[in-house]
Amino acid sequence: MKSADPDKFCKWRIVSDGIDFFRPYMGSKRVIQCHINVLKQLMRHDQQYPLITDLEDETFRDQVGKLDIGSCVAEIFDDTPGEGSHHVPLDLMVGIWISKLSINLMVDKKERKVLSLRLWGEDITLNPNTEDTRASCLAAKDWIRILTQILLNPKAWIASTNPK
């Protein structure tokens, strides 16, 4: 997206799809370090545009505060030792848009879901109050009911599904 005032801040919004292509040509001025817990906060359904002051990680908040309005790249890391740590690929980077008061993760909605499942084993992007989520839960409950019937009495289930 083109900016109205290119003298003030970055002319384009960086989306995560293009980072691999232009990151080798970027300097370090618009690259910040981001702990995986900050990424988790930015990916939650209720945190699409969190205020910079609401960011939980003080180090990250300070890095963001030093930057002008515009795009930047966040390099994700996880320094949590032991089994509780998450598998973070060595080259995990995401685009971030910084405005005057808030911040936005520039990752597509479907990609957020996939990344969430990959890193945490659950979809933290889902809003439990949306109609789509309720429909998905109902469909899952139907499948669980069917699978339970199959497991408890497979012969009866096969007989009920085969036309005579």
TrEMBL record:
A GO BP entry: tRNA methylation
Gene Ontology CC annotations of this record: cytoplasm; nucleus
Transmembrane segments annotated in the record for this chain: none
Pfam families: PUA_NSUN2
Sequence ranges assigned to domain RNA cytosine-C(5)-methyltransferase NSUN2-like PUA in this UniProt record: 30-121
Domain of life: Eukaryota
An MF annotation (GO) of this entry: tRNA (cytidine-5-)-methyltransferase activity
Classification via PANTHER family: NCL1 YEAST -RELATED NOL1/NOP2/FMU SUN DOMAIN-CONTAINING, RNA CYTOSINE-C(5)-METHYLTRANSFERASE NSUN2-RELATED
Protein name: RNA cytosine-C(5)-methyltransferase NSUN2-like PUA domain-containing protein
Source species: Puccinia striiformis f. sp. tritici PST-78
